[in-house]
UniProtKB/TrEMBL annotation, chain A:
Transmembrane segments: none annotated. It comes from the Bacteria. It comes from Acetobacter conturbans. This is Alpha-ketoacid dehydrogenase subunit beta. InterPro entries: THDP-binding, Transketo_C/PFOR_II, Transketolase-like_Pyr-bd, Transketolase_C. Residues 4-190 form the Transketolase-like pyrimidine-binding domain. PANTHER family: ACETOIN:2,6-DICHLOROPHENOLINDOPHENOL OXIDOREDUCTASE SUBUNIT BETA, PYRUVATE DEHYDROGENASE E1 COMPONENT BETA SUBUNIT. The keyword Nuclease does not apply. Keywords: Oxidoreductase.
Automatic annotation (TrEMBL), chain B:
Signal peptide: none annotated. It holds the Pfam family Abhydrolase_1. Residues 5-80 form the Lipoyl-binding domain. NCBIfam families: PRK14875.1. It comes from Acetobacter conturbans. CDD domains: lipoyl_domain. This is Acetoin dehydrogenase dihydrolipoyllysine-residue acetyltransferase subunit. InterPro entries: AB_hydrolase_1 (IPR000073), AB_hydrolase_fold (IPR029058), AB_hydrolase_sf (IPR050266), Biotin_lipoyl (IPR000089), Single_hybrid_motif (IPR011053).
UniProtKB/TrEMBL annotation, chain C:
It holds the Pfam family E1_dh. Keywords: Oxidoreductase, Thiamine pyrophosphate. It catalyses: N(6)-[(R)-lipoyl]-L-lysyl-[protein] + pyruvate + H(+) = N(6)-[(R)-S(8)-acetyldihydrolipoyl]-L-lysyl-[protein] + CO2. The keyword Transferase does not apply. Residues 14-310 form the Dehydrogenase E1 component domain. The pyruvate dehydrogenase complex catalyzes the overall conversion of pyruvate to acetyl-CoA and CO(2). It contains multiple copies of three enzymatic components: pyruvate dehydrogenase (E1), dihydrolipoamide acetyltransferase (E2) and lipoamide dehydrogenase (E3). It comes from the Bacteria. This is ABC transporter substrate-binding protein.
Amino acid sequence: MSKKSFRQAINEALRQEMRRDPRVIIMGEDVAGGRGGTSGVQDAWGGVLGVTKGLLTEFGEDRVLDTPISEASYIGAAAGAAATGLRPVAELMFVDFVGCCLDQIMNQAAKFRYMFGGKARTPLVIRAMYGAGFNAAAQHSQALYPLFTHIPGLKVVVPSSPYEAKGLLIQAIRDDDPVIFLENKVMYDEEEDVPDDPYTIPFGEANLTREGNDVTIVAFGRMVGFANQAADRLEKEGISCTVIDPRTTSPLDSGTILDCVADTGRLVIVDESSPRCNLATDVAALVAEEAFDALKAPIRRVVPPHTPVPFATILENLYLPSVEKIEAAVRSVAAYRVKEEV
Amino acid sequence: MSETITPITMPKFGLAMTEGKLASWSTPVGATVKAGDEIADIETSKITNGYESPAAGVLRRQVAPEGEMLPVGALIGILADADVPDSDIDAFISRFNESFISDDSGSAGNDEPTRKVTEVENLKISVQESGSQHDGIPLLLIHGFGGDLTNWMMTQPALTETRRVIAFDLPGHGESSKDVGDGSPVSFATTVAALAEVLDLQRVHVAGHSLGGAIALELAKTHPDLVASLTLIAPAGLGQDISMTFINGFIEADRRKTLEPVLQQLVHDKSLITRQMIESIIRYKRLDGVIPALKTIAETNFHDGRQAFPLRSVLETYSGPVQVLWGEQDEILSVAGSEDLPDAVTVIRYPDTGHMPQLEKSPDVNKAIKNFLDSGNS
Amino acid sequence: MQISRDILTRSYQAMRTIREFEERLHVEFATGEIPGFVHLYCGEEASGVGVCAHLGKTDTIASTHRGHGHCIAKGVAVDGMMAEIYGRRTGVCRGKGGSMHIADLSLGMLGANGIVGGGPPLICGAALSHKLLKDNGVAVAFYGDGASNEGSTLESLNLATVWHLPAVFVVEDNGYGEATGSSYACAGTQKDRAAGFGMPYFECDGTDFFAVYEAAEEAISHARSGKGPAMLHVHLARWYGHFEGDAMSYRVNGEVTKERSERDCLVKFRQRAADVSLLEASVLDEIDAAVKNEIDAAVVAAKKAPLPEAEDLTRDVYVSY
């Protein structure tokens, strides 16, 4: 056990799975970097933010494949390789680039099993960075997990910490279905204790990072940390919160969400993806439908405005959910009392 | 003046503790306490434990409010005679807080444990040693089924004051390799003997808990020259019963909700099982190879819902001193296992105590081990 | 070139099976009993069969929405295919894929594909599997002249070259992408496109089995021998509309009749067989009769086969839930 960053946790998961299973390969734009350059330096980047650094050296160029900047071909190739005996982990770099290869994910990989009558297995993982907070602006900052969650046949993972990232990525690689694994780019340097040995965290099993009696907060990915901070501050004000990290948006652990709402009767959902048809609306619909009688206050969503992600820091900060915004939402639902009928 | 004022500070439970939460005060302000009375519950990331008053006096102040998280050594309360004026106490508190610097590394000194991974017969064995500056026969701690070396978090620091103490993770547990062979006490004892050789231990006192007790007995049988004495805490091997609800539940439960009631069987005071303790066991169980290892151990040792390896006879042949410590409310291995033992065996039974007296009654257990080891064996 | 009697017999049988299958579907579709869209491969049989004659079970193909011929050529069972097209539970995809998604991965058939240009990237992946798993396999993408303009296809030509993959890109050029002629939609030539990626290019008359067989052998052995990908451009004609029900008002009257009478691959095959005494007419007649019976039986069985159950709706979205 030692402290590892989010980046190291992912690198270690890839490394350990590649050691365990020779069918595991990785591919993507500059996952090694340096091929065809004039210096002859191989593994020049190890991924645009260094997540796959060192894998080329250990596993060689057959298993660490740099691709042309050509998402449709290599994401499709990853799907085809997965259907024919390999277990590829393809890196899409920024999830925003999915526009260049959505067919290969949505119409091919996601559908094989169902439309081929249950006879296909597509053990494919697509890793991609998501999220605002990097001044990367509208085409490099989106939180597109709702897009993938919408597509039956895909599993979607949004890890909230280094420990979670390692266990969920190993699970993703061992899973026989296509998995979209989304890494918040702002979290790569966050550190915590992560076991050195391989381990798995099952999908569809939410984690309660705080347990309280007054308000349930459901948060996704990086927002889990924000929600934890808000919960700790609110505890001192006498508002005790349960924080749910669903870990995977597909499958979604609706049972745990409903159980917690049954206990607290008050719900705040924190989601950094665009507000229409996002996970916050999905969870709100679930609770409105299945736990209406338990609700003591309207459901509140802490979400960005319906705009592209802006560039300037001041605007980006306004755009993102924050600890303060979560606190305000929790206070408002905690204080809410149903009006007496006249 | 200040001799009559005793500061009560955040204790250090376990080797890794750097801060703790004052979970609750068990003594009201103004109450008179004796040394050893429990005055507060302290919660660490691993365990909640009663904190015993270091001296006699009146609890004059509860400096730390309930729920407050504080570094080790921080002032949490004031003990003083009834006639010490409030102004003196206020002055003491402000002087203390001005001079208090949280410095974990300094306070631990030579007792700071070293943790390393050792290669033993092709297995990685995670070992935590402390007190290596002490001469004398070291103490080797063997944890039980599903446990790890942190089961000794209350034991190792206390005994390290006078002795080299070695705790380790058994194969299949903690950070050691997950290959357990056939999972029998014989197989574990072989690994322990090999570990002793790697660590260059010619003679050790052995304390074993639960399945670790059976392993200690097996070790005493096969390596009598290695084992200087035996401390068996709620050991397997002396009775026949085993709670399969616990064993199967421990293997099968994979969520906090389902694991919590299983772990609560381990203790008499159910509130001792914290969120973090449950979380750390869930994390352990997620490691590759753990579930198969636990299943192998369970299948080998507790086949048909009974203990498969009777080791009482070892007590007839083993010539070293033996003591048996057991909680009277043990729900895993019945305290009946401590009955009808040879006269030479010292038996201590703890009331209101479950399967883990070394956590639940740690001061008593530490005292018992210390006295036992110091009474001419070391 | 020498082609064994066994290969000739099997190839003729496959072409005849495709023809009977498709002609029968044309008739049956008109009765309204077949749900959805059907895209027929009639007239193009020699292409799929001539290429697949060089492939074994360990080789992989990806197909198009006009995929029945490729399936049969790769060995997918016709009764299962027919049941699938009728939306039956006994279909190869349990009635959940239909005409456009027939697949049998156990035979290296990666699926017909409802998306134009869907197959070539998948074939890059299958070729990568063959290369890394060292099974000496080759992966073949069948795609039309319409798909040849898809970015995914052009990207795949690049990727296969960059990765030096054992892949063959078979452009089945039947002159139309849906209702638009390739003379309008395709800039430049397929040959120049192959050259643009530094890829060897082969072409052939797709109504001549022997020509396809020969050209495919070169393209496939190039890829199989580790020299990288190759392109095979097969010139074809489509005998029916883009899909069944298409009135084909974009084609001049008589265009199809002429194709049928002058460029029928089965007629040409029989002619060649007779000319050089490869196979006796009686053998071919026997095949024709057997195939007809087989297709009749497949249709009868498909119509009688059970429909999917309500529980099938939510099954097999995932391997594990």
